[in-house]
Specification:
- The protein has helices at about 55-60, 60-65, 80-90, 120, 125-135, 145-150, and strands at about 20, 35-40, 105, 110-115, 155-165, 170-175.
- The protein is α+β, with helices and mostly antiparallel strands.
- The chain has two domains: about 10-95, no CATH class; about 105-175, no CATH class.
- The strands form two sheets. It has a four-stranded antiparallel sheet with strand order 3-4-5-6. The chain has a two-stranded antiparallel sheet with strand order 1-2.
- A hairpin with a 2-residue loop joins strand 3 and strand 4.
C-alpha cells in the first residue's frame, strides 16, 4: 500500500514497533478502511467496538470521541501540557508485559524506538548505563546478578528503548513478564 502514514514525533516508526499494521479493517472512529490499523493500548471507560486508523490518532479525533488515551502519563512529569496531550492523545502507544509508560528527557517526552534485547541495548551505551543505574536504585546490589539479568534481556524481560528528541540521548526501562 502506497499511502503515507502520519508522522508521530514521539513514536516515529509505529509500523516497525508493531503498533500499527496493514489491515483491511474500518476505523472505529472515522469508519473508513484506510489499509492501516492501530493494534496497541487505548485506555477509556467508554465502549469501543473496533480499532483506530493512524489518521484518527494523529488528529486527536479518536481520543476525543472516545474520551481516552493511547499512553499513560506516568513518566512524563515536568513536560508541558501540549507535549503531554500529544503523547497521550495523538501518539500511538505500544504493547508491554507491564503497564507501558513513556520516558522523558530534556523536559520533553522522548521518542519510543522499540522493544530491544541486550545486543541492541549494548549498542547504545547511554541507555545501558542509565538502565544499570535505575536497576541499582531499585535494589540490585550484586553486580554479577545485575549483569546476568541484563545480558539475558529478550528472554523473560526486555527493554523499552527511547531517544531524547532534543539531545538524542537513549533511555530505556525494563519490562518483565
Amino acid at each position: 500500500m502506497n499511502v503515507s502514514l502520519p508522522f508521530f514525533r514521539f513514536h516515529p516508526d509505529p509500523v516497525a514497533t508493531g503498533s500499527i499494521c496493514e489491515a483491511a479493517e474500518a476505523c472505529a472512529c472515522c469508519e473508513r478502511d484506510r489499509g492501516w490499523i492501530y493494534t496497541a493500548t487505548f485506555y477509556t471507560a467508554r465502549e469501543v467496538s473496533g480499532r483506530f486508523c493512524p489518521w484518527c490518532i494523529a488528529d486527536g479525533s479518536a481520543a476525543e470521541r472516545f474520551e481516552g488515551e493511547f499512553a499513560d502519563s506516568v513518566g512524563l512529569d515536568g513536560v508541558g501540557e501540549d507535549v503531554l496531550h500529544e503523547v497521550t492523545r495523538r501518539t500511538p502507544g505500544f504493547r508491554a508485559w507491564q503497564d507501558p509508560h513513556w520516558l522523558a528527557h530534556c523536559q520533553t517526552a522522548a521518542a519510543f524506538v522499540g522493544e530491544v534485547g541486550y545486543t541492541e541495548l549494548a549498542a547504545r551505551p547511554d541507555a545501558l548505563a542509565q538502565m544499570r543505574a535505575d536497576l541499582r536504585l531499585d535494589g540490585w546490589r550484586d553486580e554479577d546478578q545485575l549483569e546476568q539479568f541484563l545480558t539475558h534481556l529478550g528472554e523473560a524481560a526486555t527493554a523499552m528503548l527511547f531517544r531524547c528528541t532534543v539531545c538524542r540521548t537513549h533511555l530505556a526501562y525494563v519490562d518483565a513478564s
